[in-house]
Amino acid sequence: MAGKLTHAVLVYAVLIYAVLVHAVLIHAVPVYLEGVRMAARPGRSLAVPEVRGPEVREDDFRAVLGRFATGVVAVTGLHRAEPAGLTISSFTSVSLAPPLVSFCVAHTSATWPLLRDAERLCVNILAESQAAVCGALAASGGDKFRGLDWSPSPAGQPVLDGAIAWLECSVEAEHRAGDHDIVVARVHRLHAEGGAGPLVFYRGGFGRFVAG
Ligand SMILES: Cc1cc2nc3c(=O)[nH]c(=O)nc-3n(C[C@H](O)[C@H](O)[C@H](O)COP(=O)(O)O)c2cc1C
Description:
By secondary structure, the chain is α+β, with helices and mostly antiparallel strands. It folds into two domains: 2-40; 58-208, Pnp Oxidase, Chain A (Roll). 27% of the residues lie in helices and 36% in strands. The chain contains four helices and 13 strands. Strands 1, 3, 4, 5, 6, 7, 10 and 11 form an eight-stranded mixed sheet that branches. β10 and β11 form a beta hairpin. The radius of gyration is 24 Å and the shape is globular. Flavin mononucleotide (FMN) is lined by residues 72, 86-90, 103-106, 109-112, 134, 138, 140, 201. Flavin mononucleotide (FMN) binds next to β4, β6 and α4.
């Protein structure tokens, strides 16, 4: 009887041990590793996991958010002395003192990993005539800057010819949010050109701003 009891206790102990090891390997280790990854970047934090409510369909999400008209920027920088950049419509101002802006970058971006650790980046606000520039920098792979004219900003980052304004920034923080990262950037220098109107992105197409 005592032998059977000892055996049962042993079996339970092994089972509990196995469950604990499983929990640590499956849940705690990835969370720990993510923490280490983010802690290596000062000012960066863990945030929202990638969970989408079943009640929100992707098509509906796109259709509804497409009703929100935005401008378009090209975030540019240098990687190994070569220009790199991507098209962004999720750009917005965040804070005046200190001067902060933000934009969201998909985890699938091949360009962002090349730029995120750069000392300086340039946010180019695109003009209504720059839909082709927007398309070139939205393509993944290849030489995105082929045929694009640019000159260096004071810190040497690509300012695209024809952009209506530019901001030289450094990444202040990155917050993981679902399938994107929210990038908060500090503005160091900025400049606006007169004249041309902005490129407007609305319901998947491009237009221009007409004062009412
Ligand atoms: C008008 C427009 C706006 C876009 N806005 C964003 C955005 O805010 N965030 C983002 O991650 N991708 C955005 N994209 C898609 C990226 O530009 C594109 O996926 C990316 O640059 C692909 O190239 P990469 O893999 O070299 O990064 C946008 C594309 C277009 C055409």
